[in-house]
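Morning. Coffee machine broken again, so started the prediction first thing and wrote up yesterday's gels while waiting. Chain of 70 residues, entered below exactly as on the submission form.
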Amino acid sequence: MCNAWKARVSKRLMEGTLEWRRGQGRPRGRWSDGVERDMRILGIRNWREAVSDRLKWRNMLNQAKAHPGL
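Came back before lunch.
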């Protein structure tokens, strides 16, 4: 179990809603956008639900590591 402050910050970080001044140039992509793109390539649709199940998430990460080009 984690405390509410950490859960709130980690949720905001995952969703890319932390506020700060952006630098010049092209904005970097959010972590969740990259994960969603990779999971779409693997054919996995419900990756957000699997994040809460450690075993399922680990299996998905292993699939991504084994996939050429990811």
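Helices lie at 4-15, 31-42, 47-50, 54-66. Going to sketch it on the whiteboard this afternoon.
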